[in-house]
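Any chance you could type out some protein's one-letter sequence along with its backbone structure tokens so I can compare the two?
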Amino acid sequence: MLAAGALGGFILSRTVGVFGFVERGLQPSPQAIASILLEIATLLTLAVPIAGHRWPVRSVIGQHRPAG
């Protein structure tokens, strides 16, 4: 959540501004691009276990259907 918020704030500050504060471009340069890349890497790293989580699935093998 923190990485998503930081990335969102970074994007907002460079587009519409945050409370009147607007930045242009990727200044300070290399820190801005490093921040973007590391925040994206953090989100992807955290998304892998979440996406790979399997919910318990009930087995249908061996269940009997009522005749009818």
